[in-house]
């Protein structure tokens, strides 16, 4: 099987060298040996991990993952001049790939354009994966949702969900969140920060001390049970995500509870949030991850965020982020209007019965 795949990859494109074909086969060989008696297809999350030993359906979320482990995740540059571009393109076009479930609507055209492949476009099916917290999702009539009274705390929420990697804290903009709170807490004594994330080992001493010592920061380093996690959304006014890409579950759940997101313009943010209508999008991060003009080369570089452990990596973006927060803090009517909009929206990016049916149809087709 490995020899056959190696020989096949060598014929894909002149850019695919013997070394690159061998490296790809070696990186997938262990997964290909996994014994799965009785399994007719593989349902793969994020990346193709085998060598085509069974047909598969790929759940695609974010482009750099397709090229792991050949690039550092935080520093990826890939296009038609690279052998792994052609290897991944061939893998997605191959008959073994029965379908590609995309979790953002824009991903279909992005993938098809990036790989210059109508065949990949035809395999893409959008299925929204984001679920509600429970059956008591907030609504305008929910008694737990009340207008702010004068003197009430104004609560910011930052969460890294269950992903505990140090890099995730930085990629989500955790340093910008802490630094912004340090500035704004001096101006607004009602401001409070709910921090649901472990702190990275490399976090600088100034920000680490801020988390441990500031009386208006509540730190939850471990994952929470549903009822306590839901309680964070019930209390929060603003959901902060000044990172390099969208992390959809927490974002969509927050919006369903009337929490107003303040985000960067990172990947997929604008697909989930309408600037000025359901939240605020701050420009300045898109340059760190995305397709270059022309759509044929993907570049991701957020090494500077990993290195900036005690202060913001992008000073101009940080100032704009602080200004956006300050504007909402000082405009309670505007904040309330955005909250009402999100409460009433029954957000379109929640999983629905139609999404479940599309998912089932994909699997039925793959099993034929």
Automatic annotation (TrEMBL):
Keywords: Plasmid. Coiled coil: none annotated. Pfam families: Glyco_trans_1_4. SUPFAM superfamilies: UDP-Glycosyltransferase/glycogen phosphorylase. GO terms for molecular function: glycosyltransferase activity. The keyword Disulfide bond does not apply. PANTHER family: BLL3647 PROTEIN, GLYCOSYLTRANSFERASE. This is Glycosyltransferase. It comes from Azospirillum thermophilum.
